[in-house]
Amino acid sequence: MVSPNNIAGDTKTGVRLTRTFPVPRTAVFAAWSSADHVKRWFGPDRYSVPEARVEPRVGGAFDVCMRGPEGVEHWLRGRFLVVDPPERLVFEMDVQAPGGGLAFTALTTVTFEHTPGGTRLTVEQTYRDLDSSAASMIEGAREGWTQTLAHLANFLSEAERARPAVRTVVHDSFTLHRDYAAPVARVWAALTTAEAKSKWFVGPPGWSLVERSMDVRPGGSERVVGKTEAGRQTTFEATYLDVRQDERLVYAYQMWLDDQKISVSLATMELSETRSGSHIKVTEQGAFLDGYDDAGSREFGTADLLDRIGRSLEA
């Protein structure tokens, strides 16, 4: 963090730190966007924040009063430039010189990246308008931010422990069949090659692709990230357990909606030849988590995907 005596980083390149927290990024973003929260963790060791003004909107204030171990108070006066919940915050702060006046302006970018089971937070800070006193004030930047993020970790851990835990699991399973007028080898390619699968493995109308990767082999993984028309992020993450070319695929997959893991499933796809082409049998066993009971929508969605495979094979 930036404090008057122990601020952060390299006078030329600034500072960049990354830390992962085992909590949803909505919770981490909230810790930065509330004055009550900021006062509980913002600052290096032995500093407290008796007052803060945090207005998470473009042009809103990010003002923090830092009280040092000797009781001396220093104000950091800032303003938000970018507020993109729950992905990014950008704000700049004016830091006073010990004798008064402006020592420098710090530009801080905070990004919040969803990871399986948590949030990867990155803080980047650069400086401008440096006066003669700025160099000594910036020397301790990296250590100051390191201590500050440790305080943030403690705050998030305490908040997570205090949150009432409501944990539920709803189980479901289904089996679906389809016949295609295409050879088994072509259906197998539709299931296992990225170019062919991208033609049918997509979200509902209005959904847009953010990220796609695919490695079909025992132990290989697949990841598809997208955003709905309403701006919610969907994440599909699979691990392939059994791969028998032209015969069988078995994989486990997790589904996320924003930061919430909504399901864990085991899927089996079996292929066989028919007189007119091929047959696929799909069996899924799912655990729907913590209040997310899909009421049969997963079976409906899988059936729609199988129909899309058929249309892609006709193209």
Task: Write structural notes for this entry.
The protein is of the alpha+beta class and about 325 residues long. The protein folds into two domains: about 15-160, START domain (Alpha-D-Glucose-1,6-Bisphosphate, Chain A, domain 4); about 170-315, 2-Layer Sandwich (Alpha-D-Glucose-1,6-Bisphosphate, Chain A, domain 4). It is about 25% helix and about 45% strand. The protein contains seven helices and 14 strands. It has helices at about 25-30, 35-40, 135-140, 140-160, 185-190, 195, 295-315; strands at about 15-20, 50-55, 60-65, 75-85, 90-95, 100-115, 120-130, 170-180, 210-215, 220-225, 235-245, 250-255, 260-275, 275-290. A seven-stranded antiparallel β-sheet has the order 1-7-6-5-4-3-2. Strands 8-14-13-12-11-10-9 form a seven-stranded antiparallel β-sheet, with helices on one face. The longest helix is centred in the middle third of the chain and has 22 residues, at about 140-160. It is elongated, with a radius of gyration of 26 Å. The termini are far apart. Residues about 1-10 have low confidence and may be disordered.
Write the layout of secondary structure elements.
Elements: E1 15-21, H1 25-32, H2 35-41, E2 48-54, E3 62-67, E4 73-84, E5 88-96, E6 102-115, E7 118-128, H3 134-138, H4 141-162, E8 169-180, H5 184-192, H6 194-197, E9 208-214, E10 221-227, E11 233-244, E12 248-257, E13 260-274, E14 277-289, H7 297-314
Antiparallel strand pairs: 1-7, 2-3, 3-4, 4-5, 5-6, 6-7, 8-14, 9-10, 10-11, 11-12, 12-13, 13-14
